[in-house]
C-alpha cells in the first residue's frame, strides 16, 4: 500500500512547479495566430479517454531522437505542421530538447502550453512509490513543465509489487495535478488484468506496437472491453514495411505515401498513432494521413496483412 505522507515529495514538486511557471504565458488574442498573423493549421482530431479527457490522435514520437538541435527542429516542424501531441520518455534521454522546443514554439506563436499534449514515461528502473515521484519530478524539471498531460509506466517490468507502488504514486500525482492522465505501455493481457484488478484509477491507454503486420487483436479486444485506448507505437514498423507491395498498390492508387496508408489504417481502427520522424517533409506528410478515408475494401485488405510481425517485445522493452 502507498504511504500516506507525501509532503517532502510534494515540496519538491512545488519547486518543479515554480520552475515551469514562466511557460504559462497566456495570449488572450488567439492561440492559433502564427508568426505574422499566419493562421496555424488546426486539424485537431482527438479521441475521448476513459477519465473524461481528450487526446490528439496523432503524436510525433521521439524515440531515438537526440537531446539536441535536430530534435528541437523536428518538434518545431511538427508543431508548425499542426501536431499538438509529443510522445517522449525518460528512457529516450531527450526530455530537455523536447521542453526547449515546446517553450520556443509556444513563445514564438503565443500559444499557451495547454494547447500541446505532452506524454512521457517512467522507466523500469524507477518503479516503486518514492522512486516514481522522484522520476516524475526529474522529468518535469527536464521539460520545464508544471504537469504532463499523460504519464505512462513504460513497461510492466518484473516486480509486481513495485509496479503497483508506481501506479499508486501515479494515482496520487494525478490528484496533485502533476499528471492529467495516467496509463501504461507494453502491458500484455496478464499484466493489464492484474493492474485493473488492483487499481483505483484505470489506465487511459496501453501504448503497444501495433500496425497491420502485427495487430495484437486479443490484447486490443481486452483494452476495448475496459475502454482503454490503444496508442500504436512503431506504426510504420520502424520503416521496415514501407516497401510492402500491397501497401504500395493502395498508396499509388490513392496518390498517398505508404506511411500515410499505415497511419490512416491505424487511426481508422480508433488508435492514437505515434509516427516518429526527424525529417521535416515526412513529419508534414505523416500528419496529413488523416485527410482521407480508406474504403472498407482497402481496410479489409490491410487487415489481412497480419503476420504477427513485431519489432520489439512487450515485456522487455528497451524503447
Ligand atoms: N512505449 C514503447 O516502448 C515504445 C517503443 C517504440 C516506439 N515508441 C513510440 O512510438 C514512436 C514511433 O515508433 P518508432 O520510432 O519505433 O517507429 P516508426 O514510427 O514506426 O518508424 C520510424 C522510422 O520510419 C521513418 N519514417 C517516418 N516517416 C516516414 C515516411 N513518411 N516515409 C519514410 N520513412 C519514414 C523514420 O525515419 P526518419 O526519422 O529518418 O524520418 C524512422 O526511421 C516512437 O518514436 C516512440 O514515441 C514507444
TrEMBL record:
CDD domains xref list: AKR_AKR1-5-like
Keyword RNA-binding attached: no
Region (Disordered): 1-50
Protein name: NADP-dependent oxidoreductase domain-containing protein
Recorded superkingdom: Eukaryota
Species per Swiss-Prot/TrEMBL record: Cladosporium halotolerans
Active site: 92 (proton donor)
rRNA-binding recorded as keyword: no
Amino acid at each position: 500500500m502507498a504511504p500516506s505522507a507525501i509532503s517532502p515529495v510534494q515540496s519538491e514538486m512545488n519547486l518543479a512547479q515554480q520552475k515551469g511557471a514562466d511557460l504559462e504565458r497566456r495570449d488572450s488574442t488567439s492561440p492559433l495566430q502564427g508568426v505574422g498573423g499566419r493562421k496555424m493549421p488546426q486539424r485537431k482530431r482527438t479521441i475521448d479517454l476513459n477519465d473524461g479527457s481528450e487526446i490528439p490522435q496523432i503524436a510525433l514520437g521521439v524515440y531515438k531522437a537526440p537531446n539536441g538541435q535536430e530534435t528541437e527542429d523536428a518538434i518545431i516542424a511538427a508543431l508548425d505542421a499542426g501536431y499538438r501531441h509529443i510522445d517522449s520518455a525518460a528512457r529516450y534521454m531527450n526530455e530537455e530538447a523536447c521542453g526547449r522546443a515546446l517553450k520556443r514554439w509556444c513563445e514564438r506563436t503565443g500559444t499557451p502550453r495547454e494547447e500541446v499534449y505532452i506524454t512521457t514515461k517512467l522507466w523500469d528502473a524507477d518503479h516503486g512509490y518514492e522512486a516514481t515521484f522522484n522520476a516524475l519530478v526529474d522529468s518535469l524539471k527536464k521539460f520545464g513543465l508544471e504537469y504532463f498531460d499523460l504519464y505512462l509506466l513504460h513497461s510492466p517490468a518484473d516486480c509486481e509489487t513495485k509496479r503497483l507502488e508506481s501506479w499508486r504514486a501515479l494515482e496520487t500525482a494525478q490528484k496533485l495535478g502533476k499528471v492529467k492522465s495516467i496509463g501504461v505501455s507494453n502491458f500484455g493481457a496478464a499484466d493489464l488484468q492484474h493492474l485493473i484488478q488492483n487499481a483505483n484509477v484505470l489506465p487511459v491507454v496501453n501504448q503497444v506496437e501495433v500496425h497491420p503486420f502485427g495487430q495484437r487483436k486479443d490484447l486490443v479486444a481486452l483494452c476495448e472491453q475496459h475502454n482503454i485506448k490503444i496508442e500504436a507505437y512503431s506504426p510504420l514498423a520502424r520503416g521496415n514495411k514501407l516497401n510492402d507491395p500491397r501497401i504500395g498498390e493502395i498508396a499509388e492508387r490513392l496518390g498517398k505515401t505508404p506511411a500515410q496508408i499505415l497511419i490512416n489504417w491505424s487511426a481508422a481502427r480508433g488508435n492514437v498513432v505515434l509516427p516518429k520522424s526527424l525529417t521535416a517533409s515526412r513529419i508534414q506528410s505523416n500528419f496529413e494521413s488523416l485527410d482521407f478515408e480508406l474504403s472498407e475494401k482497402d481496410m479489409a485488405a490491410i487487415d489481412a496483412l497480419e503476420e504477427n510481425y513485431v519489432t520489439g517485445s512487450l515485456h522487455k522493452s528497451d524503447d
